[in-house]
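Something for you to look into today, if you have time. I want to see for myself how the chain folds. Leave the record below and I will have a look.
***
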Amino acid sequence: MADAAGRLTELAEEVLGAPLPVRIRAWDRSESGPPGAPTLVIRHRRALRRMLFRPGELGLARAWVAGDLDIEGDLYAALDLLAGLIWERPGSPAPQRAAVLRALARPEIRAAARQLLTLAGAPVPPAPPAEEVRRRRGPLHTLRRDKEAISHHYDVGNGFYSLVLGPSMVYSCAYWGTADEGVATLEDAQRAKLDLICRKLGLQEGMRLLDVGCGWGSMVLHAAREYGVRAVGITLSEEQATFARKRVAEAGLADRIEIRVQDYREVHDEPFDAISSVGMAEHVGRAQYAEYAGALYSLLKPGGRLLNHQIARRPVADEEAYHVDEFIDRYVFPDGELAPLGRTVGQLEEAGFEVRDVEAIREHYARTLRQWVANLEEHWEQAARLTSPGRARVWRLYMAASALSFERNRIGVNQVLAVRTPEAGDSRLPLRARTWSA
Protein backbone atom coordinates (compact mmCIF):
# COMPACT_ATOMS: atom_id res chain seq x y z
CA MET A 1 0.00 0.00 0.00
CA ALA A 2 1.26 3.50 -0.78
CA ASP A 3 2.25 5.84 2.03
CA ALA A 4 -0.65 7.42 3.94
CA ALA A 5 -0.47 10.83 2.26
CA GLY A 6 -0.31 9.38 -1.24
CA ARG A 7 -3.23 7.02 -0.63
CA LEU A 8 -5.30 9.82 0.93
CA THR A 9 -4.65 12.06 -2.06
CA GLU A 10 -5.78 9.32 -4.45
CA LEU A 11 -8.99 8.69 -2.53
CA ALA A 12 -9.80 12.40 -2.16
CA GLU A 13 -9.40 12.93 -5.89
CA GLU A 14 -11.60 9.92 -6.69
CA VAL A 15 -14.36 11.15 -4.39
CA LEU A 16 -14.15 14.80 -5.45
CA GLY A 17 -13.64 14.08 -9.13
CA ALA A 18 -10.94 16.75 -9.36
CA PRO A 19 -7.26 17.19 -8.49
CA LEU A 20 -6.69 18.02 -4.84
CA PRO A 21 -5.40 21.63 -4.84
CA VAL A 22 -3.52 21.33 -1.52
CA ARG A 23 -0.73 19.15 -0.20
CA ILE A 24 -1.35 16.48 2.43
CA ARG A 25 1.01 15.61 5.26
CA ALA A 26 -0.01 12.51 7.21
CA TRP A 27 0.77 11.28 10.70
CA ASP A 28 3.47 8.98 9.23
CA ARG A 29 5.29 12.11 7.91
CA SER A 30 4.55 11.21 4.30
CA GLU A 31 3.55 14.06 1.96
CA SER A 32 1.71 14.26 -1.33
CA GLY A 33 0.33 16.97 -3.55
CA PRO A 34 1.40 20.09 -5.45
CA PRO A 35 4.70 21.57 -4.17
CA GLY A 36 4.39 25.00 -2.61
CA ALA A 37 0.65 24.69 -2.01
CA PRO A 38 -0.85 25.09 1.48
CA THR A 39 -0.62 21.83 3.40
CA LEU A 40 -3.48 19.93 5.01
CA VAL A 41 -1.84 18.33 8.05
CA ILE A 42 -3.52 15.15 9.33
CA ARG A 43 -1.95 14.91 12.78
CA HIS A 44 -3.73 11.75 13.87
CA ARG A 45 -5.44 8.90 12.05
CA ARG A 46 -8.44 9.64 14.29
CA ALA A 47 -9.20 12.46 11.81
CA LEU A 48 -9.95 9.81 9.19
CA ARG A 49 -12.42 8.07 11.47
CA ARG A 50 -14.21 11.36 12.05
CA MET A 51 -14.53 11.88 8.29
CA LEU A 52 -15.50 8.28 7.55
CA PHE A 53 -18.25 8.15 10.16
CA ARG A 54 -19.55 11.63 9.23
CA PRO A 55 -18.64 12.28 5.58
CA GLY A 56 -18.63 15.89 4.46
CA GLU A 57 -18.33 19.15 6.31
CA LEU A 58 -19.20 18.03 9.84
CA GLY A 59 -16.57 15.28 9.93
CA LEU A 60 -13.92 17.71 8.74
CA ALA A 61 -15.09 20.32 11.25
CA ARG A 62 -14.84 17.84 14.11
CA ALA A 63 -11.30 16.88 13.06
CA TRP A 64 -10.33 20.57 12.87
CA VAL A 65 -11.83 21.53 16.24
CA ALA A 66 -10.24 18.51 17.94
CA GLY A 67 -6.83 19.43 16.54
CA ASP A 68 -6.56 16.21 14.52
CA LEU A 69 -6.52 18.29 11.34
CA ASP A 70 -4.65 21.52 10.66
CA ILE A 71 -3.52 23.78 7.83
CA GLU A 72 0.09 24.80 7.41
CA GLY A 73 0.69 27.88 5.31
CA ASP A 74 -1.75 30.59 4.28
CA LEU A 75 -5.10 29.71 5.89
CA TYR A 76 -7.06 31.98 3.54
CA ALA A 77 -5.38 30.51 0.45
CA ALA A 78 -6.11 26.97 1.64
CA LEU A 79 -9.77 27.70 2.34
CA ASP A 80 -10.12 29.45 -0.99
CA LEU A 81 -8.68 26.42 -2.79
CA LEU A 82 -10.94 24.03 -0.92
CA ALA A 83 -14.13 26.09 -1.27
CA GLY A 84 -16.74 24.19 -3.23
CA LEU A 85 -14.79 20.92 -2.94
CA ILE A 86 -15.02 20.22 0.77
CA TRP A 87 -16.86 23.08 2.46
CA GLU A 88 -20.28 24.05 1.24
CA ARG A 89 -20.95 27.43 -0.23
CA PRO A 90 -23.49 29.41 1.84
CA GLY A 91 -26.98 28.97 0.41
CA SER A 92 -26.08 25.81 -1.48
CA PRO A 93 -29.26 23.73 -1.89
CA ALA A 94 -27.38 20.38 -2.01
CA PRO A 95 -25.45 19.25 1.07
CA GLN A 96 -21.85 18.29 0.34
CA ARG A 97 -22.35 15.26 2.58
CA ALA A 98 -24.94 13.86 0.16
CA ALA A 99 -22.50 14.19 -2.74
CA VAL A 100 -19.82 12.40 -0.73
CA LEU A 101 -22.23 9.61 0.21
CA ARG A 102 -23.21 9.16 -3.43
CA ALA A 103 -19.54 8.87 -4.35
CA LEU A 104 -18.95 6.31 -1.62
CA ALA A 105 -21.73 4.18 -3.11
CA ARG A 106 -19.60 3.52 -6.21
CA PRO A 107 -17.81 0.12 -6.07
CA GLU A 108 -14.34 1.50 -6.79
CA ILE A 109 -14.75 4.17 -4.12
CA ARG A 110 -16.02 1.62 -1.60
CA ALA A 111 -12.91 -0.46 -2.21
CA ALA A 112 -10.68 2.57 -1.63
CA ALA A 113 -12.71 3.48 1.46
CA ARG A 114 -12.08 0.02 2.91
CA GLN A 115 -8.37 0.63 2.54
CA LEU A 116 -8.83 4.03 4.13
CA LEU A 117 -10.67 2.40 7.03
CA THR A 118 -7.63 0.16 7.53
CA LEU A 119 -5.47 3.28 7.62
CA ALA A 120 -7.85 4.93 10.08
CA GLY A 121 -7.44 2.26 12.73
CA ALA A 122 -10.10 1.19 15.23
CA PRO A 123 -13.53 1.20 13.54
CA VAL A 124 -15.16 3.19 16.31
CA PRO A 125 -16.46 6.75 15.78
CA PRO A 126 -14.65 9.23 18.05
CA ALA A 127 -16.80 11.32 20.34
CA PRO A 128 -17.50 14.82 18.99
CA PRO A 129 -15.40 17.64 20.51
CA ALA A 130 -16.80 19.19 23.66
CA GLU A 131 -17.37 22.47 21.82
CA GLU A 132 -20.11 20.96 19.66
CA VAL A 133 -23.78 21.63 20.37
CA ARG A 134 -25.50 18.24 20.45
CA ARG A 135 -28.68 18.30 22.52
CA ARG A 136 -31.28 20.90 21.61
CA ARG A 137 -34.71 20.67 23.12
CA GLY A 138 -38.07 21.86 21.90
CA PRO A 139 -39.17 23.70 18.75
CA LEU A 140 -36.98 26.32 17.07
CA HIS A 141 -36.81 29.88 18.40
CA THR A 142 -38.71 29.56 21.64
CA LEU A 143 -37.54 31.99 24.32
CA ARG A 144 -35.69 29.20 26.12
CA ARG A 145 -34.00 27.71 23.08
CA ASP A 146 -32.92 31.10 21.71
CA LYS A 147 -31.37 31.96 25.07
CA GLU A 148 -29.43 28.68 25.05
CA ALA A 149 -28.22 29.33 21.50
CA ILE A 150 -27.05 32.84 22.37
CA SER A 151 -25.31 31.55 25.48
CA HIS A 152 -23.39 28.99 23.40
CA HIS A 153 -22.05 31.71 21.13
CA TYR A 154 -21.47 34.60 23.50
CA ASP A 155 -20.92 33.14 26.97
CA VAL A 156 -17.42 31.89 26.21
CA GLY A 157 -15.61 34.50 28.26
CA ASN A 158 -15.45 38.27 27.97
CA GLY A 159 -11.67 38.04 28.16
CA PHE A 160 -11.59 35.92 25.00
CA TYR A 161 -13.75 38.38 23.11
CA SER A 162 -11.62 41.29 24.36
CA LEU A 163 -8.59 39.73 22.68
CA VAL A 164 -10.41 39.14 19.40
CA LEU A 165 -12.48 42.33 19.13
CA GLY A 166 -10.06 44.78 20.68
CA PRO A 167 -10.94 47.77 22.89
CA SER A 168 -14.12 48.64 20.97
CA MET A 169 -15.85 45.38 22.03
CA VAL A 170 -18.06 45.59 18.95
CA TYR A 171 -18.92 42.25 17.35
CA SER A 172 -20.30 43.40 14.00
CA CYS A 173 -19.02 44.85 10.75
CA ALA A 174 -16.89 47.98 11.14
CA TYR A 175 -17.12 50.94 8.75
CA TRP A 176 -13.74 51.56 7.17
CA GLY A 177 -12.43 54.74 5.64
CA THR A 178 -9.07 56.43 5.20
CA ALA A 179 -6.54 57.80 7.63
CA ASP A 180 -7.44 61.29 6.37
CA GLU A 181 -10.99 60.60 7.55
CA GLY A 182 -9.69 59.54 10.96
CA VAL A 183 -10.33 55.85 10.28
CA ALA A 184 -6.96 54.09 10.46
CA THR A 185 -7.54 51.28 12.99
CA LEU A 186 -10.21 48.74 13.82
CA GLU A 187 -11.24 50.87 16.80
CA ASP A 188 -11.60 53.92 14.52
CA ALA A 189 -13.72 51.92 12.09
CA GLN A 190 -15.99 50.57 14.81
CA ARG A 191 -16.47 54.05 16.23
CA ALA A 192 -17.30 55.29 12.72
CA LYS A 193 -19.90 52.52 12.37
CA LEU A 194 -21.57 53.37 15.68
CA ASP A 195 -21.66 57.05 14.77
CA LEU A 196 -23.08 56.30 11.33
CA ILE A 197 -25.93 54.36 12.94
CA CYS A 198 -26.64 57.20 15.35
CA ARG A 199 -26.79 59.69 12.47
CA LYS A 200 -29.01 57.44 10.37
CA LEU A 201 -31.37 57.19 13.33
CA GLY A 202 -31.35 60.99 13.72
CA LEU A 203 -30.58 60.73 17.45
CA GLN A 204 -30.93 63.88 19.51
CA GLU A 205 -30.70 64.87 23.15
CA GLY A 206 -33.46 63.31 25.24
CA MET A 207 -34.57 60.68 22.74
CA ARG A 208 -35.20 57.12 23.90
CA LEU A 209 -33.24 54.39 22.07
CA LEU A 210 -33.69 50.61 22.17
CA ASP A 211 -30.65 48.57 21.12
CA VAL A 212 -31.75 45.01 20.32
CA GLY A 213 -28.89 42.58 20.86
CA CYS A 214 -26.74 45.17 22.60
CA GLY A 215 -23.68 42.96 23.05
CA TRP A 216 -21.15 44.48 25.42
CA GLY A 217 -22.89 47.87 25.39
CA SER A 218 -20.82 49.80 22.85
CA MET A 219 -23.76 51.15 20.86
CA VAL A 220 -25.75 52.46 23.83
CA LEU A 221 -22.61 53.93 25.37
CA HIS A 222 -21.77 55.83 22.19
CA ALA A 223 -25.35 57.03 21.70
CA ALA A 224 -25.70 58.24 25.30
CA ARG A 225 -22.27 59.84 25.48
CA GLU A 226 -22.23 61.53 22.07
CA TYR A 227 -25.93 62.21 21.42
CA GLY A 228 -27.43 62.54 24.90
CA VAL A 229 -30.08 59.83 24.50
CA ARG A 230 -31.59 57.60 27.15
CA ALA A 231 -30.97 54.02 26.09
CA VAL A 232 -32.12 50.49 26.84
CA GLY A 233 -29.86 47.67 25.68
CA ILE A 234 -31.15 44.09 25.65
CA THR A 235 -29.19 40.85 25.31
CA LEU A 236 -29.76 37.19 26.11
CA SER A 237 -26.16 36.72 27.26
CA GLU A 238 -25.58 36.98 31.00
CA GLU A 239 -21.84 37.53 30.46
CA GLN A 240 -22.41 40.35 27.99
CA ALA A 241 -24.88 42.04 30.33
CA THR A 242 -22.47 41.88 33.27
CA PHE A 243 -19.68 43.38 31.19
CA ALA A 244 -21.92 46.08 29.68
CA ARG A 245 -23.28 47.16 33.07
CA LYS A 246 -19.73 47.53 34.38
CA ARG A 247 -18.79 49.72 31.40
CA VAL A 248 -21.91 51.85 31.88
CA ALA A 249 -21.14 52.37 35.56
CA GLU A 250 -17.50 53.25 34.83
CA ALA A 251 -18.64 55.79 32.24
CA GLY A 252 -20.95 57.45 34.77
CA LEU A 253 -23.99 56.82 32.56
CA ALA A 254 -26.06 54.52 34.78
CA ASP A 255 -28.78 57.18 34.99
CA ARG A 256 -29.19 57.15 31.18
CA ILE A 257 -28.49 53.54 30.17
CA GLU A 258 -30.23 50.37 31.28
CA ILE A 259 -28.88 46.95 30.31
CA ARG A 260 -31.34 44.05 30.48
CA VAL A 261 -31.16 40.31 29.94
CA GLN A 262 -34.31 40.22 27.88
CA ASP A 263 -35.70 38.90 24.60
CA TYR A 264 -37.12 41.41 22.12
CA ARG A 265 -40.46 39.62 22.52
CA GLU A 266 -40.47 40.56 26.22
CA VAL A 267 -40.07 44.34 25.81
CA HIS A 268 -43.31 46.09 26.68
CA ASP A 269 -42.27 49.56 27.89
CA GLU A 270 -42.67 51.31 24.55
CA PRO A 271 -42.63 53.71 22.86
CA PHE A 272 -39.06 54.33 21.70
CA ASP A 273 -37.92 57.13 19.41
CA ALA A 274 -35.42 54.87 17.64
CA ILE A 275 -34.33 51.24 17.51
CA SER A 276 -30.98 49.80 16.48
CA SER A 277 -30.62 46.09 15.75
CA VAL A 278 -27.03 45.36 14.81
CA GLY A 279 -25.95 41.80 14.03
CA MET A 280 -28.90 40.34 15.94
CA ALA A 281 -31.53 39.51 13.29
CA GLU A 282 -29.43 36.56 12.04
CA HIS A 283 -30.50 34.74 15.21
CA VAL A 284 -34.23 35.35 14.70
CA GLY A 285 -34.99 32.61 12.16
CA ARG A 286 -37.15 32.78 9.06
CA ALA A 287 -40.26 31.45 10.83
CA GLN A 288 -40.03 34.21 13.44
CA TYR A 289 -38.94 37.12 11.26
CA ALA A 290 -42.42 38.50 10.68
CA GLU A 291 -42.94 38.53 14.45
CA TYR A 292 -39.57 40.24 14.94
CA ALA A 293 -40.38 42.96 12.39
CA GLY A 294 -43.85 43.46 13.84
CA ALA A 295 -42.54 43.67 17.39
CA LEU A 296 -40.02 46.37 16.50
CA TYR A 297 -42.67 48.31 14.58
CA SER A 298 -44.99 48.26 17.58
CA LEU A 299 -42.21 49.46 19.90
CA LEU A 300 -41.53 52.60 17.84
CA LYS A 301 -43.28 55.93 18.04
CA PRO A 302 -44.90 57.13 14.81
CA GLY A 303 -42.06 58.74 12.89
CA GLY A 304 -39.49 56.62 14.71
CA ARG A 305 -36.63 55.00 12.83
CA LEU A 306 -35.23 51.47 12.80
CA LEU A 307 -31.66 50.68 11.73
CA ASN A 308 -31.45 46.95 10.95
CA HIS A 309 -27.83 45.84 10.32
CA GLN A 310 -27.93 42.23 9.09
CA ILE A 311 -25.89 39.63 7.21
CA ALA A 312 -27.59 38.37 4.04
CA ARG A 313 -27.02 35.31 1.89
CA ARG A 314 -27.45 35.03 -1.83
CA PRO A 315 -30.89 33.76 -2.93
CA VAL A 316 -31.15 30.22 -4.27
CA ALA A 317 -33.48 28.78 -6.89
CA ASP A 318 -35.30 26.60 -4.35
CA GLU A 319 -35.58 28.59 -1.14
CA GLU A 320 -37.31 25.70 0.63
CA ALA A 321 -34.17 23.60 0.14
CA TYR A 322 -31.92 26.14 1.86
CA HIS A 323 -30.18 24.77 4.92
CA VAL A 324 -27.69 26.12 7.42
CA ASP A 325 -24.31 24.44 7.03
CA GLU A 326 -23.43 21.96 9.73
CA PHE A 327 -20.24 23.58 11.01
CA ILE A 328 -21.98 26.89 11.68
CA ASP A 329 -25.02 25.21 13.24
CA ARG A 330 -23.07 22.85 15.52
CA TYR A 331 -20.19 25.10 16.55
CA VAL A 332 -20.87 28.78 15.90
CA PHE A 333 -24.49 29.99 15.66
CA PRO A 334 -26.89 27.23 16.73
CA ASP A 335 -30.25 27.73 15.02
CA GLY A 336 -29.00 30.82 13.17
CA GLU A 337 -30.39 31.50 9.70
CA LEU A 338 -29.51 33.93 6.93
CA ALA A 339 -32.04 35.39 4.52
CA PRO A 340 -31.66 37.18 1.17
CA LEU A 341 -31.79 40.96 1.38
CA GLY A 342 -35.00 41.13 -0.65
CA ARG A 343 -36.85 38.92 1.80
CA THR A 344 -35.70 41.06 4.75
CA VAL A 345 -36.83 44.28 3.09
CA GLY A 346 -40.14 42.68 2.11
CA GLN A 347 -40.89 41.50 5.63
CA LEU A 348 -40.06 44.89 7.13
CA GLU A 349 -42.47 46.48 4.65
CA GLU A 350 -45.14 43.90 5.43
CA ALA A 351 -44.82 44.81 9.12
CA GLY A 352 -45.71 48.40 8.21
CA PHE A 353 -42.28 50.01 7.85
CA GLU A 354 -41.33 52.34 5.03
CA VAL A 355 -37.86 51.27 3.92
CA ARG A 356 -35.91 54.42 3.06
CA ASP A 357 -32.32 53.34 2.56
CA VAL A 358 -30.22 50.22 2.06
CA GLU A 359 -26.43 50.42 2.28
CA ALA A 360 -24.40 47.33 1.34
CA ILE A 361 -21.08 47.13 3.18
CA ARG A 362 -19.87 43.55 2.62
CA GLU A 363 -16.27 44.54 1.77
CA HIS A 364 -16.12 46.30 5.14
CA TYR A 365 -16.96 43.04 6.90
CA ALA A 366 -14.24 41.10 5.08
CA ARG A 367 -11.68 43.61 6.32
CA THR A 368 -13.13 43.52 9.84
CA LEU A 369 -12.97 39.72 9.99
CA ARG A 370 -9.36 39.63 8.79
CA GLN A 371 -8.48 42.02 11.59
CA TRP A 372 -10.25 39.82 14.15
CA VAL A 373 -8.37 36.75 12.85
CA ALA A 374 -5.10 38.67 13.15
CA ASN A 375 -5.97 39.63 16.74
CA LEU A 376 -6.76 36.00 17.58
CA GLU A 377 -3.57 34.69 16.01
CA GLU A 378 -1.48 37.35 17.77
CA HIS A 379 -2.89 36.31 21.15
CA TRP A 380 -3.40 32.62 20.36
CA GLU A 381 -2.01 31.01 23.51
CA GLN A 382 -3.84 33.41 25.82
CA ALA A 383 -7.09 33.05 23.85
CA ALA A 384 -6.90 29.24 24.05
CA ARG A 385 -6.33 29.41 27.81
CA LEU A 386 -9.26 31.78 28.34
CA THR A 387 -11.75 29.50 26.58
CA SER A 388 -10.38 26.24 25.11
CA PRO A 389 -8.03 25.33 22.26
CA GLY A 390 -11.00 23.85 20.41
CA ARG A 391 -13.10 26.99 20.81
CA ALA A 392 -10.23 29.14 19.58
CA ARG A 393 -9.90 26.87 16.55
CA VAL A 394 -13.64 27.20 15.86
CA TRP A 395 -13.39 30.99 15.82
CA ARG A 396 -10.27 31.04 13.66
CA LEU A 397 -11.83 28.82 11.00
CA TYR A 398 -15.22 30.52 11.16
CA MET A 399 -13.88 34.06 10.86
CA ALA A 400 -11.35 33.27 8.13
CA ALA A 401 -13.90 31.37 6.03
CA SER A 402 -16.44 34.16 6.56
CA ALA A 403 -13.95 36.79 5.39
CA LEU A 404 -13.53 34.88 2.15
CA SER A 405 -17.30 34.51 1.77
CA PHE A 406 -17.76 38.26 2.02
CA GLU A 407 -14.91 38.90 -0.40
CA ARG A 408 -16.31 36.45 -2.96
CA ASN A 409 -19.89 37.82 -2.67
CA ARG A 410 -21.25 34.57 -1.27
CA ILE A 411 -22.72 36.55 1.62
CA GLY A 412 -23.18 40.26 2.28
CA VAL A 413 -24.16 42.65 5.04
CA ASN A 414 -26.59 45.55 4.78
CA GLN A 415 -27.82 48.46 6.84
CA VAL A 416 -31.54 48.92 6.24
CA LEU A 417 -33.06 52.18 7.46
CA ALA A 418 -36.83 51.93 7.94
CA VAL A 419 -39.37 54.36 9.36
CA ARG A 420 -42.69 53.93 11.11
CA THR A 421 -44.13 56.60 8.86
CA PRO A 422 -47.36 58.17 10.18
CA GLU A 423 -50.55 57.98 8.10
CA ALA A 424 -50.10 61.63 7.09
CA GLY A 425 -46.90 60.59 5.31
CA ASP A 426 -44.26 62.74 7.03
CA SER A 427 -41.20 60.46 7.33
CA ARG A 428 -39.20 63.23 9.08
CA LEU A 429 -36.23 62.36 6.92
CA PRO A 430 -34.14 64.91 5.00
CA LEU A 431 -35.00 65.50 1.36
CA ARG A 432 -31.48 64.57 0.31
CA ALA A 433 -30.61 60.97 1.12
CA ARG A 434 -27.65 60.11 3.34
CA THR A 435 -27.19 63.46 5.05
CA TRP A 436 -28.55 61.65 8.15
CA SER A 437 -29.67 64.65 10.13
CA ALA A 438 -33.08 65.13 11.69
